[in-house]
Amino acid sequence: MNHTDVIIAGGGFAGLACAKALAEAGISVTLLERKHTPGMGMHTTGIIVKECADEFAVPEHLTRRVTDVRLYAPSMRHTDLKSPDYFFLTTDTPGLMRFLSDEAIKAGATILYDTPYQSAVQDGEKIRVNGHYSSRFLIGADGPRSKVADDFALGQNTQFLLGAEAEYEGLPLHDNNAFYCFLNQKLAYGYLGWVIPGVGVAQVGLACRMPAKPDIDAFVGSMRSEFDFSGAKVVARRGGLIPVGGLVKPFYRDNIILLGDSAGIVSPLTAGGIHTALHYGKILGEAIAEHLKHNGEHPAVLMNRIYPRFHAKQLLRKAFERTPDSVLNLAIGNPLFSWFAATMFFMKKRLK
Questions:
Q1: What distance in Å separates the CA atoms of residue 98 and residue 106, rounded to the nearest whole number?
Q2: What is the DSSP letter of 98?
Q3: pTM above 0.85?
Q4: Which of 83, 128, 242, 328 has the smallest CB count inside 10 Å?
């Protein structure tokens, strides 16, 4: 039986941030990841907001800065939104995951790829995982439908967006510095569609509030008056679930704690989860280290105090889902709506 202080199930943004923080504090940590290599089969757009870029160093060669937003109504009328000091970063997401994995390993974390989390049981003060490993803490960072949560009767995500994205080579854009966003409740119910310049590609995608499903071909067809897809080639596709129901309850039991998408700490309004994953992953790792080394407060107590509940964003999401396309068409030219939209895109993104 291999023993380690902490076992993390899942090698996404949250799991890697937690593993690095633990290892830097001198805590033995083993991360189990089902994928063969870091960055394989990504389900995220990899778009990072300014606040995340300010908090976590990301290699410049893995990113592209985008500063403006062009927001389209279902009628294809649009308004341009700008901010003098805000930006988004698109990323070479597989490359970014390899970088984060390397950073965690350099800090001293053990990462076992091609090793999925299968099961765990509590045995006194120890947690036995996959029949081969034991630990004092188990962190469930294993995605929106967490098996760790299932094994220990923790809270499960029940509300989702379903996203789909294609990467295009050779897609000309009017403005290579713009994030093109499309409001359309028929094609992207409860969320939006997007076109954004990525690292060497253009990212084209949309997400819908389930049970609606995204149809990229229909979305591309709706944009042919704006973009010339005739010479463009799809070089990659991805898709996946985005939890938007807020923090699951309960998110912990004893020394088993959920993190990232597993815990539901994804903004219900923007569907942004990378910043929260990295931020709270780091905090949880530091809190576990403080608890184990200096008998600090139990990390679950701290996370219960600081994890976001997203109450206001839940209300805004529900209001948006009830807004028909006819209202969105009228709103695009309204100065008050433009101010509100600019506030949503460019204001400082609070983690709550």
A1: 12
A2: H
A3: yes
A4: 83
